[in-house]
Specification:
single chain; 131 residues; mainly alpha; two-stranded antiparallel sheet
Length: 131
């Protein structure tokens, strides 16, 4: 039987899940976004190298903004990863209403799985997203 909501997928019957699990999920999401940014950074560097006038000061500053974004996402991920385990296990939240703001299927699935499944999925080698 497939769970009908992210809360059920986390194994909760009353809608309450450990806040630390939600924080760890957010950390994994931030880490994935930083990884995507790193891949885009390489593409941007290649495009800048191949285009005329790409080395203008404005374009370099914009490219540095991408690097700053990646660094901030990585730092946020590290912060959340360190914070999650320190939260008391009795701190529970019901993420149902907040999860309604997640519109990308990937994010809905990530925030809807048990912590063990999310960690395994984040560390599985060879996964490729094609769109």
């Amino acid at each position: 039987m497939t769970p009908s909501s992210p809360v059920q997928a986390l194994g909760s019957t009353d809608g309450q899940v450990c806040l630390s699990e939600v924080i760890q999920t957010a950390a994994l999401e931030a880490r994935d976004l930083a990884g995507m940014g790193n891949r885009f950074q390489g593409l941007v560097a290649e495009l800048m190298a191949s285009s005329q006038g790409a080395h203008s000061a404005e374009r370099i500053v914009q490219a540095q903004g991408l690097d700053s974004l990646i660094q901030r996402l990585s730092a946020l991920s590290s912060f959340l990863e360190a914070l999650g385990p320190s939260l008391p296990p009795e701190w529970k939240v019901n993420p149902a209403q907040a999860s309604q703001n997640l519109t990308l299927d990937h994010s809905v699935r990530r925030f809807g799985r048990r912590a063990e499944d999310r960690i395994a999925a984040a560390t599985r080698p060879g996964d490729v997203d094609l769109f």
